[in-house]
Amino acid sequence: MEINPLSVILVKSDSKGDRLLFRYPFQVQENREISNKSRKNPYTLTVVEETLQSPASYSSNINKGVLSGLSDEVLSSLFAVKTDLCNKKFELKVNDVRFVSHPTLLQLKTKQSEKDDDSGIMLINIVFALSALASHSVVGCYHDLSQRLGIILRHEEKRCGYVSEQTQSMMAAHDDYTSNNSAAFQVILDKCTLGDNIKKLYEDLCTTGLVHLKVNRWITLSFCLPQKAHQWHLRGHIVEPDDIDRCLTALRPYHSLLLLHPVEHLIDFTCLDSSPSLIKMLTQYSPMKNLQTLAADSDLTLSHVFELTAHLVYWAKATVIFPVCATNRYVISPNAPLHQNSPLIEKFSKTFPGLHLIKTIHEFSVPTSLQSKLNPLCNSTLQSSLVQNIIWMLQHHLLLQLHTYIEYMPMENGASNLNTRQFEKALSSHGTSVLSASFPEPSRIELSESATSSVFEGQDGVKHFENYNASNEEKQNYQEELLLDFPDEERSEIFKIPATNTPEDLKLFAKLCRKGYFEGTHHLEEIMYLENLRRSQLTQLLDKFRDVLVTYDSEDPAIAMFSCTGCLQ
Question: What residues does the GATOR1 complex protein NPRL3 C-terminal HTH domain cover (predicted)?
Answer without folding.
Answer: 489-550
